[in-house]
Design a protein that fits this description.
404 residues, 22 helices, mainly alpha, flat
């Protein structure tokens, strides 16, 4: 079990950083091939991408790409979009067009490496990370190169790459996390704990680091300290059955057998649930064009309260069915639940612009404005909800309570 958890963490860490684009690239003196109108269109595409409106961003870049010679920036943005929606072949194709135009474009070889890594084409990933390091040495590609070495079974080279990333940027947390995992796999638990705690000191709320520190403390026999850290990890990730198993061991060592037994039962149940989600994840990733697969995976994540991941999965589905307003409404509601009210409001407003009679969104807007204390807009939205969704259960209950 532990090996699978660590392996997944390594892959996630590799993908922490994706270059944000031309702002980090060297000045080659190449003229901008876009006219002023196209530049504005590209800026809108960037805004759409930032809002994770993948369908909108792709539509805007599609027309730019059809212009003949849109330049490296447009292809780079398309590569990022395709990567985010798990269409790795198209991502690679877009990034390779960037290379054809400007081989030393900052971030392009790193991102190519990420796409090849996702396809488990590790040698191609290695070549691109090394190219990025040669052109733009930084912690990010060195750390990613370490992940490739891990995948290829070259442990010493992986450690060297992680160490090099830390030398370049002593604040780059993912490299410390990978070093902690590396030492743990090698059975050097005290060294692993040192790196994990250095990383946790820089990010006290990081659930993965909390789990790693707790796991290593338990391995080293400090069950009391492990219990405190693992409890916090589980509070942040209630689905983390690995942390639950470790905490149960800590309870057992501390003589709290009843608590350990109850926790083991919970962990075993959640492990089965998460295993089913893992299968859905594999299916969704292997069939990125399947709306049904994306929705099934997203629904399972939402049910498990893995809400940030659920939003990401729903957004991939929304790219396939951008006109599905119920889906867009669900995404907005999740964003609101996650504490992103501005993003939620923007999506609600987009839905109303697309269909001013969509009653469920008016109902959500009424609740949104009510929480803000904006009685005028709350009443306006509520009246629209009553008008366009009189049979909605919430509307019916409210009207019945008022005697209407």
């Amino acid at each position: 079990m532990k090996g699978n958890v660590v392996r997944c963490a390594s892959i996630i860490a590799i993908l922490f950083g994706v270059s944000c684009g031309k702002s980090d690239a060297p000045d080659t003196g190449q003229a901008n091939p876009l006219n002023p109108g196209q530049i504005r269109q590209f800026e809108l595409a960037q805004l759409a991408y930032s809002a994770r409106d993948y369908a909108g961003a792709l539509a805007l870049t599609d027309s730019l790409a059809r212009s003949g010679s849109p330049g490296a920036d447009v292809h780079f943005l398309r590569g990022r979009i395709f990567f985010d929606i798990h269409e790795y072949d198209k991502s690679i194709e877009s990034y390779e067009k960037v290379v054809d135009i400007e081989t030393e474009y900052a971030g392009v070889h790193h991102n190519l490496g990420n796409a090849f890594f996702q396809k488990r084409q590790y040698r191609q990933a290695q070549e691109n990370y090394e190219e990025e390091i040669q052109n733009h040495p930084a912690a990010l590609p060195w750390h990613a190169l370490g992940g490739v070495y891990e995948a290829l079974g070259v442990a010493d080279s992986a450690r060297m790459a992680y160490d090099r990333a830390i030398q370049i940027d002593s604040t780059y947390i993912p490299a410390y996390a990978s070093m902690a995992d590396w030492f743990e796999r090698e059975g050097m638990f005290e060294e692993g704990l040192e790196y994990a705690e250095r990383a946790l000191a820089m990010d006290r709320e990081n659930a993965h680091l909390l789990f790693t520190v707790g796991r290593l403390r338990q391995t080293l026999g400090d069950s009391e300290a492990a219990g405190r850290v693992l409890t916090k990890a589980i509070e942040k990730e209630p689905w983390n059955y690995g942390a639950m198993f470790q905490l149960a061991q800590a309870f057992q060592a501390l003589g709290e057998s009843d608590d350990a037994s109850r926790l083991l039962q919970t962990a075993d149940r959640i492990r089965n649930e998460q295993s089913a989600i893992d299968l859905l994840a594999n299916s969704a990733r292997s069939q990125p064009e399947s709306f049904e697969k994306q929705i099934a995976y997203a629904n399972a994540l939402r049910k498990s309260r893995r809400l940030e991941e659920a939003v990401s999965a729903y957004l991939i589905a929304a790219n396939l069915r951008p006109g599905n307003l119920s889906l867009q409404n669900n995404i907005a509601t999740l964003l609101l639940e996650l504490g992103h009210p501005e993003q939620a409001l923007s999506r609600y407003e987009q839905i109303i612009r697309a269909d001013s009679t969509f009653g469920e969104t008016w109902l959500n807007l009424a609740a949104y404005y009510s929480r803000l204390g904006d009685d005028v807009n709350a009443k306006r939205a509520w009246d629209k909800a009553v008008q366009y969704a009189p049979d909605h259960p919430v509307v019916k209950r409210a009207l019945e309570a008022r005697g209407n």
